[in-house]
Structures are given as C-alpha cells and as structure tokens.
Amino acid sequence: MNKTFDRIAAAGILLWIGAAAAPVHADEIADFYKGKSVNIVVGHEPATGFDVYARLLARHLSRHIPGQPNIVVQNMTGASGLTAANWLYNVAPKDGTVMATFVHTIPFEPLMGNGAARFEAAKFAWIGNMEESVAVCGISKVSGVTKFEDMLTRETIWGATGATGPLVKSAAAVKNLLGAKMKIVSGYKGSASVKIAVSRNEVHGICGLPMSTILSAWSDIYNSGEFRPVIQLSGRKQADLKGIPHVDDFAKSEDDRQIYGLIFGTQALGRIYLAPPGTPDARRDALRAALLATMKDPQFVADATKAQIDISPMTGAEVEKFIARLSTASPATVERVKQATRVD
Asked: 16, 60, 281, 344: most buried by Cβ count inside 10 Å?
C-alpha cells in the first residue's frame, strides 16, 4: 500500500480547477445523479478479486460523485467477462448510471479475432484502473514442485476458466513459450472456484492470478505455505518475490518481448472500470474524477489496507491510451500471441 499518488493528485487538481470554472456544469451533474443508482457490473463470480475490489469501491465511491447516488454491485458471469462486456456495449443504459469491471484480456478479444466479442474497445468510455496488477503462476505444496525449473520435467495440473480468460491464456503461454509440462483444466467459473479445486488437490496450481488476490482471498493457503508463486508474469520484478524468476528472463529477442508484453504485460490493466459507448462526456468525466478521488480517500485507503489489497491507480485517459497502443500490434505479432495462448 506504499504507493505514490503524485500523478493522480495532479490530475485531481486539474479536474478541480475545471469544476470550479464551471459550477453550473457541476450542478447539472449533481441534479442528474441525485436520487439515482449507479450500477457496477462485475463480469466474474463473487469472492474473486474483481468482486472484492468492486465492493470496496462501492462503499466509498458515492461520496465523490456529485449528487451522491446509491452504488449497487451486480455480478454478471460468463465467458470470463466477455458476457458482461457485450452487455455493456450493446444493452446497458448509456446515461452514466452503469460501469463495469472485468479481466484485462477482454478489451483485446476483437484484436485476437474472437467473433463472440461484439464490441469495439476504443468506443468504450474508460473510467480508470484501480490496480496495476502483478500476476504470477502459483502452485500447491503437494504438487512436489518447489521452483519453476521443476515444471520443465514434472507434469502438473492447472485450473483455469474459459477460453477468453487470463487463467487459461497465461497457463497456455507458459506451457507453449517456456516449455513447462502443464495439463490445463479449464471451465472453472473463476479464481475462487480454482482455489477450492487446489485445496481439494483436484488441480495443482493457477496462472495469471494477481498477487493482490493471493494476499487477500488466497492468504490462508499462501501464509501457511500450502501455496507458493513459482514465476512472475507481469509488472516489474518484485522485492517480495526475490528468487522467483520473471517471464521476461526467458525472452531471447525483441520479438519475444513484444509477445510477452501483449500476453502478460496487459495485466497492468488489473482492475479496469469502463462505461458504455455514448456515455455523455461530462458524466464520464465526473465518474473518472470520482474514481480518482476515491483512491485518495483516507477511509477508502484504510479499508483497502485492512483488506490487504493493493491500490495503484491509472486515470481513464491513461487506460484509453494503453489499450489503443497495444491494439496497434501487427498481424504477425497477433498470430504468434494466438498460437502461444492456444490450449491443445
């Protein structure tokens, strides 16, 4: 939780100046939201990291939205978040009363040629990101694996969600790119279901899980030593994970680094929030400002610390630029990513 918020504070000052210069505009926003509800749709099952973050946000967000609307969290599971994304784009009200959160791989499904992705990522109203996630592959003690190198010679079983989820794609990429002997069992509803499977010894591990989720929802088996990270997949090398290799250590060329960036680097979009296309700019901006203000709210920060979850926010504009940049990947790079994340 020892994160710096200089960038966020600067953005907040600019937003405050803009608001001070246009009080009538602010009054219009307050008049719209007063007495209404804002729904946060979580594209994953209850008790997952996405659900934990959303419910924490919901307890504090209203104070920072003009008019202080009621905040309601709803779970809409299906296709590892794709169901929620399609609903948000094609069905949800476009008036600023709906936001959604789902896994970071979803915005890139159209780029990857997934015909079931019925949206254009660039047209969403990107609100912001609560956490630039650090993801890992972790495995149970009973697997007999103590370090990543063991996975190159010993077959292990890995739990995952649907084909569009990072749990599947991360595991497949580690298997296909790094040569780990992994059997991938997909079809779990989310990380909470995989945790139960790990505890029952149905599977040995999980890939693509943020450390923030491990330190919160998985803390019991992590702190007991029954579950341990074996390779870092995203973000900078973490001091707390010293001795555990990073996937970047295995890159042999610039092409490899580009592939790893598109597969694993997108994890920086750990807890993204967005609204439907067509959301009025003024209301989008109000939600962006509210999200940033909540991230600095002492009550929110205290609750996040208590829940043992990391907060390292990105602005809505930063998220929008990040997605736009990665969406310019060449067809050859995209094809390599598709091959690397394919489950046999």
From this structure: 60
